[in-house]
Amino acid sequence: MTATQADDKPKGVVPLREGLFRIPKSPGEKPAVIASRCPRCGEHFFPKRVVCLACGQVGLEEAYLTGPGKIWTFTIARDTPPGSLIQAPYVIAQVQLPEKVIVGSVLSDCDVDSVRVDMPVRLVLEKVKQDEEGNDVVALKFRLMQ
Amino acid sequence: MSDSRVVVLGVGLVRFGRYPDKSPEDLGREAGLAALEDAGIDFKEVQAGFHARVQNVVAAGTSTFGQLGQYGIPVTNVELACASSSRGALLSADLIRGGLYDVCMVIGVEKMGRGMLGGGGVGGGGAYQVQMGMFLMPGLYAMMAQRHMHLYGTKREHFAQVSVKSHRNGVLNPNAQYQKELTLEEILESRMIADPITLYQCCPTTDGASAVILCSEKYARQHTTKPVYLTAWAGGTPMYVSGEAELSEGPNAVLARKVYEASGLGPEDVDVVQLHDAFSPGEVLGVEELGFCKHGEGGPFVWEGNTEISGKKPVNTDGGLLSRGHPMGATGGAMITEITRQLRGEAGPRQVKDPKVALLHNAGLGGVNVMAFQV
Protein backbone atom coordinates (compact mmCIF):
# COMPACT_ATOMS: atom_id res chain seq x y z
CA MET A 1 0.00 0.00 0.00
CA THR A 2 1.44 3.35 -1.01
CA ALA A 3 1.49 6.18 1.44
CA THR A 4 -0.34 9.13 -0.07
CA GLN A 5 -0.19 12.59 1.43
CA ALA A 6 -3.75 13.87 1.43
CA ASP A 7 -2.73 17.43 0.62
CA ASP A 8 -1.20 16.23 -2.67
CA LYS A 9 -4.74 15.44 -3.79
CA PRO A 10 -7.17 18.00 -2.45
CA LYS A 11 -10.02 16.51 -4.51
CA GLY A 12 -11.30 12.97 -4.25
CA VAL A 13 -10.00 12.46 -0.72
CA VAL A 14 -12.50 11.34 1.91
CA PRO A 15 -12.01 10.36 5.55
CA LEU A 16 -12.44 6.75 6.64
CA ARG A 17 -14.70 8.16 9.31
CA GLU A 18 -16.11 11.69 9.68
CA GLY A 19 -15.41 13.69 12.81
CA LEU A 20 -12.11 12.18 13.92
CA PHE A 21 -9.53 14.12 11.93
CA ARG A 22 -9.28 17.10 9.58
CA ILE A 23 -8.17 16.74 5.96
CA PRO A 24 -6.24 19.90 4.99
CA LYS A 25 -8.19 22.11 2.59
CA SER A 26 -5.38 24.55 1.80
CA PRO A 27 -1.61 24.17 1.40
CA GLY A 28 -0.92 25.88 4.74
CA GLU A 29 -3.24 23.68 6.77
CA LYS A 30 -1.89 20.66 8.63
CA PRO A 31 -3.62 17.36 9.29
CA ALA A 32 -5.26 17.59 12.70
CA VAL A 33 -7.06 15.51 15.27
CA ILE A 34 -10.56 16.82 15.95
CA ALA A 35 -10.73 16.97 19.74
CA SER A 36 -12.87 18.62 22.39
CA ARG A 37 -11.58 21.31 24.73
CA CYS A 38 -13.25 22.19 28.00
CA PRO A 39 -13.92 25.95 28.16
CA ARG A 40 -13.90 25.79 31.96
CA CYS A 41 -10.82 23.72 32.89
CA GLY A 42 -8.95 23.47 29.57
CA GLU A 43 -8.80 19.64 29.46
CA HIS A 44 -8.73 18.09 25.98
CA PHE A 45 -10.42 14.88 24.83
CA PHE A 46 -10.31 12.61 21.82
CA PRO A 47 -12.60 11.53 20.33
CA LYS A 48 -14.98 14.45 20.77
CA ARG A 49 -17.35 14.34 23.71
CA VAL A 50 -20.02 16.49 25.31
CA VAL A 51 -19.26 16.28 29.05
CA CYS A 52 -15.81 17.07 30.51
CA LEU A 53 -14.34 14.09 32.35
CA ALA A 54 -12.12 16.33 34.47
CA CYS A 55 -14.60 18.91 35.79
CA GLY A 56 -18.08 17.87 34.64
CA GLN A 57 -18.68 20.89 32.37
CA VAL A 58 -21.43 20.20 29.84
CA GLY A 59 -20.76 21.59 26.37
CA LEU A 60 -17.17 21.46 25.10
CA GLU A 61 -15.50 23.38 22.25
CA GLU A 62 -14.08 21.77 19.15
CA ALA A 63 -10.27 21.93 18.98
CA TYR A 64 -7.89 21.01 16.16
CA LEU A 65 -4.68 19.46 17.46
CA THR A 66 -1.75 19.14 15.08
CA GLY A 67 0.90 17.53 17.28
CA PRO A 68 3.63 16.44 17.20
CA GLY A 69 3.21 13.85 19.92
CA LYS A 70 5.14 11.14 21.70
CA ILE A 71 4.42 7.44 22.05
CA TRP A 72 2.88 6.82 25.48
CA THR A 73 2.66 3.09 24.88
CA PHE A 74 2.32 0.72 21.94
CA THR A 75 2.17 -2.86 20.80
CA ILE A 76 3.19 -4.65 17.64
CA ALA A 77 0.31 -6.54 16.01
CA ARG A 78 1.80 -9.64 14.39
CA ASP A 79 -1.55 -11.01 13.19
CA THR A 80 -4.01 -9.08 11.05
CA PRO A 81 -7.33 -9.04 12.92
CA PRO A 82 -10.54 -9.76 10.98
CA GLY A 83 -11.82 -6.71 9.07
CA SER A 84 -8.57 -4.72 9.34
CA LEU A 85 -7.42 -2.66 6.37
CA ILE A 86 -3.94 -2.53 7.91
CA GLN A 87 -1.79 -5.59 7.31
CA ALA A 88 0.39 -7.09 10.06
CA PRO A 89 3.02 -6.49 11.24
CA TYR A 90 2.14 -2.97 12.31
CA VAL A 91 2.34 -0.88 15.46
CA ILE A 92 -0.74 0.22 17.43
CA ALA A 93 0.21 3.23 19.52
CA GLN A 94 -1.30 5.44 22.18
CA VAL A 95 0.18 8.84 21.44
CA GLN A 96 0.22 11.74 23.89
CA LEU A 97 -0.13 15.16 22.23
CA PRO A 98 1.22 18.39 23.82
CA GLU A 99 -2.31 19.10 25.13
CA LYS A 100 -1.91 15.83 27.16
CA VAL A 101 -4.74 14.13 25.29
CA ILE A 102 -4.09 10.53 24.24
CA VAL A 103 -4.87 9.53 20.65
CA GLY A 104 -4.84 5.91 19.60
CA SER A 105 -3.90 4.98 16.06
CA VAL A 106 -1.42 2.94 14.06
CA LEU A 107 2.05 4.00 12.99
CA SER A 108 2.85 4.62 9.37
CA ASP A 109 5.22 2.05 7.80
CA CYS A 110 8.32 1.68 9.97
CA ASP A 111 10.75 -0.85 11.38
CA VAL A 112 8.31 -2.17 13.97
CA ASP A 113 11.06 -3.59 16.18
CA SER A 114 12.70 -0.17 16.57
CA VAL A 115 9.67 1.44 18.23
CA ARG A 116 10.02 2.55 21.86
CA VAL A 117 7.92 4.46 24.40
CA ASP A 118 8.52 8.26 24.31
CA MET A 119 9.59 8.36 20.63
CA PRO A 120 8.35 11.57 18.91
CA VAL A 121 5.78 11.16 16.15
CA ARG A 122 3.90 13.47 13.78
CA LEU A 123 0.40 13.24 12.38
CA VAL A 124 -0.04 12.03 8.80
CA LEU A 125 -3.03 11.13 6.66
CA GLU A 126 -2.61 8.02 4.58
CA LYS A 127 -4.75 6.25 2.04
CA VAL A 128 -6.12 3.02 3.49
CA LYS A 129 -8.41 2.07 0.58
CA GLN A 130 -10.27 3.40 -2.45
CA ASP A 131 -14.06 3.73 -2.36
CA GLU A 132 -16.52 2.76 -5.14
CA GLU A 133 -16.39 6.28 -6.61
CA GLY A 134 -12.62 6.21 -6.94
CA ASN A 135 -11.92 8.50 -4.01
CA ASP A 136 -8.91 7.91 -1.82
CA VAL A 137 -10.14 7.00 1.64
CA VAL A 138 -7.64 8.28 4.20
CA ALA A 139 -7.09 7.76 7.90
CA LEU A 140 -4.98 9.42 10.55
CA LYS A 141 -1.74 7.65 11.41
CA PHE A 142 1.44 8.65 13.20
CA ARG A 143 4.91 8.67 11.65
CA LEU A 144 8.15 8.35 13.58
CA MET A 145 10.15 11.61 13.42
CA GLN A 146 13.68 10.55 12.64
CA MET B 1 -24.00 -2.09 54.90
CA SER B 2 -24.73 -4.00 58.10
CA ASP B 3 -22.10 -6.22 59.66
CA SER B 4 -23.81 -9.52 58.88
CA ARG B 5 -21.81 -11.79 56.66
CA VAL B 6 -22.79 -13.57 53.50
CA VAL B 7 -22.00 -17.26 53.06
CA VAL B 8 -20.98 -19.16 49.93
CA LEU B 9 -23.11 -22.25 50.47
CA GLY B 10 -22.55 -24.12 47.22
CA VAL B 11 -20.43 -24.01 44.09
CA GLY B 12 -20.44 -26.03 40.88
CA LEU B 13 -18.74 -26.16 37.52
CA VAL B 14 -19.01 -27.86 34.20
CA ARG B 15 -15.45 -28.66 33.18
CA PHE B 16 -14.25 -25.89 30.87
CA GLY B 17 -13.63 -26.98 27.29
CA ARG B 18 -15.60 -27.51 24.08
CA TYR B 19 -19.23 -28.67 24.03
CA PRO B 20 -20.44 -28.60 20.44
CA ASP B 21 -23.37 -30.88 21.32
CA LYS B 22 -24.64 -29.01 24.35
CA SER B 23 -26.67 -25.81 24.52
CA PRO B 24 -25.82 -22.99 26.93
CA GLU B 25 -28.95 -24.00 28.86
CA ASP B 26 -27.60 -27.56 29.19
CA LEU B 27 -24.30 -26.26 30.53
CA GLY B 28 -26.04 -23.86 32.92
CA ARG B 29 -28.33 -26.60 34.23
CA GLU B 30 -25.42 -28.97 34.88
CA ALA B 31 -23.46 -26.33 36.79
CA GLY B 32 -26.61 -25.30 38.68
CA LEU B 33 -27.40 -28.86 39.72
CA ALA B 34 -23.79 -29.36 40.86
CA ALA B 35 -23.97 -26.22 43.03
CA LEU B 36 -27.33 -27.26 44.54
CA GLU B 37 -25.88 -30.65 45.39
CA ASP B 38 -22.81 -29.02 46.89
CA ALA B 39 -25.06 -26.73 48.97
CA GLY B 40 -27.31 -29.63 49.95
CA ILE B 41 -30.48 -27.72 49.10
CA ASP B 42 -33.32 -27.93 46.60
CA PHE B 43 -33.81 -25.31 43.87
CA LYS B 44 -37.15 -24.44 45.56
CA GLU B 45 -35.09 -22.72 48.28
CA VAL B 46 -33.55 -20.20 45.85
CA GLN B 47 -35.30 -16.83 46.11
CA ALA B 48 -33.54 -14.84 43.38
CA GLY B 49 -31.31 -15.66 40.44
CA PHE B 50 -28.65 -13.83 38.48
CA HIS B 51 -27.64 -15.10 35.09
CA ALA B 52 -24.29 -14.05 33.62
CA ARG B 53 -23.72 -14.45 29.93
CA VAL B 54 -22.09 -12.14 27.38
CA GLN B 55 -23.16 -13.49 24.00
CA ASN B 56 -26.80 -14.00 22.92
CA VAL B 57 -28.27 -12.76 26.14
CA VAL B 58 -31.88 -11.84 25.33
CA ALA B 59 -33.96 -13.37 28.14
CA ALA B 60 -31.26 -16.02 28.53
CA GLY B 61 -31.53 -16.09 32.32
CA THR B 62 -35.16 -17.13 32.26
CA SER B 63 -34.48 -20.10 29.98
CA THR B 64 -31.40 -21.29 31.89
CA PHE B 65 -32.94 -20.97 35.35
CA GLY B 66 -36.15 -22.47 33.93
CA GLN B 67 -34.16 -25.67 33.37
CA LEU B 68 -33.98 -26.06 37.15
CA GLY B 69 -37.62 -25.24 37.97
CA GLN B 70 -40.28 -22.60 37.63
CA TYR B 71 -41.25 -21.09 40.96
CA GLY B 72 -41.72 -17.53 39.74
CA ILE B 73 -38.56 -16.10 41.29
CA PRO B 74 -36.95 -12.97 39.84
CA VAL B 75 -34.08 -13.79 37.49
CA THR B 76 -31.89 -10.96 36.20
CA ASN B 77 -29.36 -10.99 33.37
CA VAL B 78 -26.04 -9.45 34.33
CA GLU B 79 -23.65 -8.47 31.56
CA LEU B 80 -20.22 -6.92 32.22
CA ALA B 81 -18.28 -8.85 29.60
CA CYS B 82 -15.64 -10.95 31.40
CA ALA B 83 -16.69 -9.77 34.88
CA SER B 84 -20.36 -10.75 34.65
CA SER B 85 -20.82 -13.60 37.11
CA SER B 86 -18.76 -12.03 39.89
CA ARG B 87 -21.07 -9.02 39.59
CA GLY B 88 -24.02 -11.41 39.90
CA ALA B 89 -22.49 -12.65 43.16
CA LEU B 90 -21.83 -9.11 44.31
CA LEU B 91 -25.45 -8.10 43.69
CA SER B 92 -26.65 -11.26 45.46
CA ALA B 93 -24.48 -10.36 48.43
CA ASP B 94 -25.92 -6.82 48.52
CA LEU B 95 -29.45 -8.24 48.60
CA ILE B 96 -28.66 -10.84 51.25
CA ARG B 97 -26.80 -8.40 53.48
CA GLY B 98 -29.68 -5.95 53.02
CA GLY B 99 -32.06 -8.56 54.37
CA LEU B 100 -34.16 -8.90 51.21
CA TYR B 101 -33.37 -12.55 50.54
CA ASP B 102 -31.79 -15.51 52.32
CA VAL B 103 -30.72 -17.51 49.26
CA CYS B 104 -29.56 -16.30 45.84
CA MET B 105 -28.01 -18.19 42.97
CA VAL B 106 -25.70 -17.07 40.18
CA ILE B 107 -25.32 -19.10 37.01
CA GLY B 108 -22.64 -18.06 34.52
CA VAL B 109 -22.56 -19.60 31.05
CA GLU B 110 -20.73 -19.11 27.77
CA LYS B 111 -20.31 -21.00 24.52
CA MET B 112 -17.64 -19.16 22.58
CA GLY B 113 -16.46 -21.29 19.70
CA ARG B 114 -12.90 -21.00 18.40
CA GLY B 115 -10.83 -18.05 17.18
CA MET B 116 -9.72 -14.68 18.44
CA LEU B 117 -12.14 -12.25 20.02
CA GLY B 118 -12.10 -8.62 19.06
CA GLY B 119 -12.30 -5.79 21.55
CA GLY B 120 -10.09 -3.50 23.50
CA GLY B 121 -9.19 -0.71 21.11
CA VAL B 122 -9.08 2.80 22.47
CA GLY B 123 -10.52 6.01 20.99
CA GLY B 124 -12.64 6.40 17.87
CA GLY B 125 -15.61 4.17 17.19
CA GLY B 126 -16.39 0.53 16.54
CA ALA B 127 -16.23 0.01 12.77
CA TYR B 128 -13.37 2.51 12.39
CA GLN B 129 -11.34 0.68 15.01
CA VAL B 130 -11.88 -2.64 13.27
CA GLN B 131 -10.79 -1.23 9.92
CA MET B 132 -7.74 0.41 11.44
CA GLY B 133 -6.62 -2.90 12.98
CA MET B 134 -7.00 -1.57 16.51
CA PHE B 135 -9.78 -3.91 17.60
CA LEU B 136 -7.45 -6.47 19.13
CA MET B 137 -8.06 -7.76 22.65
CA PRO B 138 -4.48 -8.79 23.50
CA GLY B 139 -3.53 -5.28 22.32
CA LEU B 140 -4.93 -3.68 25.46
CA TYR B 141 -2.90 -5.89 27.81
CA ALA B 142 0.10 -5.66 25.49
CA MET B 143 0.07 -1.87 25.70
CA MET B 144 -0.20 -2.00 29.49
CA ALA B 145 2.74 -4.42 29.44
CA GLN B 146 4.86 -2.20 27.17
CA ARG B 147 4.26 0.82 29.42
CA HIS B 148 5.25 -1.30 32.43
CA MET B 149 8.41 -2.50 30.67
CA HIS B 150 9.30 1.11 29.87
CA LEU B 151 8.69 2.44 33.38
CA TYR B 152 10.05 -0.43 35.46
CA GLY B 153 12.27 -2.57 33.26
CA THR B 154 9.89 -5.53 33.43
CA LYS B 155 11.09 -8.30 31.12
CA ARG B 156 9.10 -10.42 28.69
CA GLU B 157 10.21 -13.50 30.64
CA HIS B 158 8.39 -12.14 33.69
CA PHE B 159 5.09 -12.12 31.82
CA ALA B 160 5.74 -15.52 30.26
CA GLN B 161 6.46 -17.01 33.70
CA VAL B 162 2.83 -16.31 34.65
CA SER B 163 1.77 -18.72 31.94
CA VAL B 164 4.34 -21.35 32.99
CA LYS B 165 2.87 -21.31 36.49
CA SER B 166 -0.76 -21.21 35.37
CA HIS B 167 -0.32 -24.21 33.09
CA ARG B 168 1.48 -26.15 35.83
CA ASN B 169 -1.51 -25.46 38.12
CA GLY B 170 -3.96 -26.40 35.36
CA VAL B 171 -2.47 -29.92 35.30
CA LEU B 172 -3.65 -30.29 38.91
CA ASN B 173 -7.22 -29.18 38.11
CA PRO B 174 -9.57 -31.77 36.58
CA ASN B 175 -11.93 -28.94 35.53
CA ALA B 176 -9.27 -27.03 33.55
CA GLN B 177 -9.56 -26.71 29.79
CA TYR B 178 -5.82 -27.29 29.38
CA GLN B 179 -4.03 -29.81 31.55
CA LYS B 180 -0.61 -29.61 29.98
CA GLU B 181 2.61 -28.09 31.24
CA LEU B 182 4.43 -25.59 29.04
CA THR B 183 8.06 -24.52 29.41
CA LEU B 184 9.20 -20.91 29.44
CA GLU B 185 10.82 -21.47 26.05
CA GLU B 186 7.66 -22.98 24.54
CA ILE B 187 5.68 -19.97 25.72
CA LEU B 188 8.19 -17.35 24.57
CA GLU B 189 8.65 -19.05 21.20
CA SER B 190 4.97 -19.56 20.46
CA ARG B 191 3.50 -17.27 17.80
CA MET B 192 3.77 -13.56 18.65
CA ILE B 193 0.27 -12.04 18.75
CA ALA B 194 0.70 -8.52 20.18
CA ASP B 195 4.20 -7.79 21.42
CA PRO B 196 5.16 -8.90 24.13
CA ILE B 197 2.20 -11.32 24.30
CA THR B 198 2.68 -14.63 22.52
CA LEU B 199 -0.10 -17.13 21.77
CA TYR B 200 0.47 -19.18 24.95
CA GLN B 201 0.09 -16.03 27.00
CA CYS B 202 -3.49 -15.57 25.77
CA CYS B 203 -6.46 -17.24 27.43
CA PRO B 204 -8.33 -19.62 25.15
CA THR B 205 -11.93 -19.27 24.04
CA THR B 206 -13.99 -21.72 26.03
CA ASP B 207 -17.38 -23.30 26.58
CA GLY B 208 -18.38 -23.80 30.18
CA ALA B 209 -20.62 -22.90 33.07
CA SER B 210 -20.35 -22.09 36.75
CA ALA B 211 -22.89 -21.74 39.54
CA VAL B 212 -22.67 -20.19 42.98
CA ILE B 213 -25.23 -20.23 45.79
CA LEU B 214 -24.98 -17.45 48.34
CA CYS B 215 -27.02 -17.23 51.52
CA SER B 216 -27.46 -15.38 54.79
CA GLU B 217 -25.51 -16.43 57.87
CA LYS B 218 -28.78 -17.41 59.54
CA TYR B 219 -29.76 -19.71 56.65
CA ALA B 220 -26.25 -21.16 56.49
CA ARG B 221 -26.37 -22.27 60.13
CA GLN B 222 -29.10 -24.77 59.21
CA HIS B 223 -27.20 -26.15 56.22
CA THR B 224 -23.48 -26.21 56.89
CA THR B 225 -21.03 -26.46 59.73
CA LYS B 226 -18.10 -25.22 57.62
CA PRO B 227 -19.20 -21.95 56.08
CA VAL B 228 -17.04 -19.91 53.70
CA TYR B 229 -17.81 -16.23 54.28
CA LEU B 230 -17.90 -13.49 51.68
CA THR B 231 -16.93 -10.61 53.96
CA ALA B 232 -16.40 -7.58 51.72
CA TRP B 233 -16.86 -6.64 48.09
CA ALA B 234 -16.63 -3.70 45.73
CA GLY B 235 -17.33 -3.17 42.04
CA GLY B 236 -16.45 -0.32 39.72
CA THR B 237 -15.75 1.10 36.28
CA PRO B 238 -12.74 3.05 34.92
CA MET B 239 -11.81 6.39 36.54
CA TYR B 240 -10.53 9.22 34.36
CA VAL B 241 -6.84 10.00 34.73
CA SER B 242 -5.63 13.04 32.79
CA GLY B 243 -2.81 12.36 30.35
CA GLU B 244 -3.00 8.57 30.53
CA ALA B 245 -4.44 6.10 28.06
CA GLU B 246 -7.59 4.40 29.29
CA LEU B 247 -6.30 0.84 29.24
CA SER B 248 -7.44 -0.50 32.59
CA GLU B 249 -10.90 -2.02 32.91
CA GLY B 250 -11.46 -0.40 36.29
CA PRO B 251 -9.84 1.19 39.32
CA ASN B 252 -8.32 -2.06 40.62
CA ALA B 253 -6.23 -0.56 43.41
CA VAL B 254 -9.08 1.68 44.63
CA LEU B 255 -11.48 -1.26 44.79
CA ALA B 256 -8.93 -3.44 46.59
CA ARG B 257 -8.40 -0.71 49.20
CA LYS B 258 -12.16 -0.47 49.74
CA VAL B 259 -12.38 -4.22 50.27
CA TYR B 260 -9.43 -4.25 52.66
CA GLU B 261 -10.92 -1.39 54.67
CA ALA B 262 -14.38 -2.96 54.81
CA SER B 263 -13.04 -6.34 55.93
CA GLY B 264 -10.35 -5.07 58.29
CA LEU B 265 -7.82 -7.07 56.31
CA GLY B 266 -4.65 -6.07 54.54
CA PRO B 267 -2.83 -7.57 51.59
CA GLU B 268 -0.50 -9.30 54.06
CA ASP B 269 -3.46 -11.33 55.39
CA VAL B 270 -4.38 -12.86 52.03
CA ASP B 271 -3.49 -16.56 51.68
CA VAL B 272 -4.86 -17.36 48.21
CA VAL B 273 -5.78 -15.20 45.23
CA GLN B 274 -7.86 -15.42 42.08
CA LEU B 275 -7.10 -12.61 39.66
CA HIS B 276 -7.95 -11.83 36.08
CA ASP B 277 -5.19 -13.14 33.81
CA ALA B 278 -6.92 -13.02 30.41
CA PHE B 279 -3.39 -12.37 29.14
CA SER B 280 -0.22 -12.93 31.14
CA PRO B 281 0.47 -9.25 32.02
CA GLY B 282 -2.78 -9.36 34.02
CA GLU B 283 -1.06 -11.16 36.88
CA VAL B 284 2.06 -8.96 36.92
CA LEU B 285 -0.04 -5.79 37.09
CA GLY B 286 -2.65 -7.40 39.35
CA VAL B 287 -0.30 -8.38 42.18
CA GLU B 288 0.81 -4.74 42.34
CA GLU B 289 -2.68 -3.26 42.23
CA LEU B 290 -4.01 -5.64 44.87
CA GLY B 291 -1.14 -4.54 47.13
CA PHE B 292 0.96 -7.73 47.29
CA CYS B 293 4.10 -5.94 46.14
CA LYS B 294 5.16 -2.39 45.28
CA HIS B 295 4.31 -0.80 41.94
CA GLY B 296 6.88 -1.84 39.38
CA GLU B 297 7.90 -4.99 41.26
CA GLY B 298 5.23 -7.31 39.86
CA GLY B 299 7.58 -8.84 37.29
CA PRO B 300 10.28 -9.97 39.76
CA PHE B 301 7.55 -10.90 42.29
CA VAL B 302 6.12 -13.44 39.84
CA TRP B 303 9.53 -14.50 38.51
CA GLU B 304 10.78 -15.36 42.02
CA GLY B 305 7.89 -17.79 42.55
CA ASN B 306 5.79 -15.83 45.04
CA THR B 307 2.58 -16.62 43.17
CA GLU B 308 3.17 -20.39 43.00
CA ILE B 309 0.90 -22.67 45.05
CA SER B 310 3.82 -23.07 47.50
CA GLY B 311 4.72 -19.34 47.32
CA LYS B 312 3.75 -16.62 49.74
CA LYS B 313 0.82 -15.33 47.60
CA PRO B 314 -0.56 -18.24 45.57
CA VAL B 315 -2.38 -16.83 42.51
CA ASN B 316 -4.76 -18.71 40.22
CA THR B 317 -4.20 -22.10 41.82
CA ASP B 318 -6.66 -23.69 39.37
CA GLY B 319 -4.78 -22.55 36.26
CA GLY B 320 -6.46 -19.16 35.93
CA LEU B 321 -8.01 -17.92 32.75
CA LEU B 322 -4.86 -18.93 30.86
CA SER B 323 -5.16 -22.65 31.58
CA ARG B 324 -8.52 -23.27 33.28
CA GLY B 325 -10.13 -21.41 30.38
CA HIS B 326 -12.30 -18.33 30.07
CA PRO B 327 -15.96 -18.83 29.11
CA MET B 328 -16.63 -15.15 29.74
CA GLY B 329 -19.92 -15.26 31.62
CA ALA B 330 -18.80 -18.24 33.73
CA THR B 331 -15.37 -17.01 34.78
CA GLY B 332 -16.26 -15.06 37.95
CA GLY B 333 -18.21 -18.07 39.25
CA ALA B 334 -15.27 -20.34 38.51
CA MET B 335 -13.05 -18.00 40.53
CA ILE B 336 -15.47 -18.18 43.47
CA THR B 337 -15.59 -21.96 43.08
CA GLU B 338 -11.81 -22.30 43.35
CA ILE B 339 -11.61 -19.96 46.33
CA THR B 340 -14.38 -21.88 48.10
CA ARG B 341 -12.63 -25.20 47.51
CA GLN B 342 -9.33 -23.77 48.73
CA LEU B 343 -10.85 -22.29 51.89
CA ARG B 344 -12.72 -25.54 52.62
CA GLY B 345 -9.49 -27.51 52.14
CA GLU B 346 -11.01 -29.44 49.22
CA ALA B 347 -8.54 -28.46 46.49
CA GLY B 348 -6.69 -31.78 46.42
CA PRO B 349 -3.22 -31.70 44.84
CA ARG B 350 -3.37 -27.94 44.34
CA GLN B 351 -4.38 -27.20 47.95
CA VAL B 352 -2.68 -24.18 49.53
CA LYS B 353 -1.62 -24.94 53.10
CA ASP B 354 -4.38 -23.97 55.56
CA PRO B 355 -5.69 -20.77 53.90
CA LYS B 356 -7.96 -18.46 55.93
CA VAL B 357 -8.36 -15.44 53.65
CA ALA B 358 -8.84 -15.24 49.88
CA LEU B 359 -9.11 -12.31 47.49
CA LEU B 360 -10.84 -12.30 44.09
CA HIS B 361 -10.31 -9.85 41.23
CA ASN B 362 -12.42 -10.27 38.08
CA ALA B 363 -12.10 -7.65 35.32
CA GLY B 364 -13.84 -7.07 32.03
CA LEU B 365 -14.76 -4.37 29.56
CA GLY B 366 -17.86 -3.87 31.71
CA GLY B 367 -15.96 -3.20 34.93
CA VAL B 368 -14.07 -4.78 37.80
CA ASN B 369 -15.14 -6.66 40.93
CA VAL B 370 -12.98 -7.33 44.00
CA MET B 371 -14.18 -9.63 46.79
CA ALA B 372 -12.72 -10.94 50.06
CA PHE B 373 -13.56 -14.39 51.45
CA GLN B 374 -12.75 -15.86 54.86
CA VAL B 375 -13.15 -18.98 56.96
How are the SSEs ordered, and which strands pair?
The complex is a heterodimer of chains A (146) and B (375).
Chain A: E1 13-15, E2 21-22, E3 32-37, E4 44-45, E5 61-65, E6 69-77, E7 90-96, E8 102-106, E9 120-130, E10 136-144
Parallel strand pairs in A: 1-10
Antiparallel strand pairs in A: 2-3, 3-4, 3-5, 6-7, 6-9, 7-8, 9-10
Chain B: E1 6-17, H1 24-39, E2 48-52, H2 60-66, E3 75-78, H3 84-97, E4 103-111, H4 126-131, H5 137-152, H6 156-171, H7 184-189, E5 192-194, E6 197-198, E7 207-216, H8 217-221, E8 228-236, H9 252-263, E9 272-274, H10 281-289, H11 298-303, H12 320-324, H13 331-344, E10 357-364, E11 367-374
Parallel strand pairs in B: 2-3, 2-4, 9-10
Antiparallel strand pairs in B: 1-7, 1-8, 4-7, 5-6, 8-11, 10-11
Distance, first to last CA of chain A: 21 Å
Largest sheet of chain A: 6 strands, mixed
Spans of chain A of 5+ residues with little confidence (pLDDT < 50)?
A: none
Main sheet record of chain B: 9 strands, mixed
- CATH architecture annotation name of chain B: 3-Layer(aba) Sandwich
SSE pattern of chain A, N- to C-terminal: EEEEEEEEEE
What share of residues are in beta strands of chain A? 35-45%
Q: How would you classify the helix and strand content of chain B by structural class?
A: alpha/beta
The strands making up the biggest β-sheet of chain B line up spatially as 3-2-4-7-1-8-11-10-9
Helix fraction of chain A by DSSP (H/I, runs of at least 4): under 10%
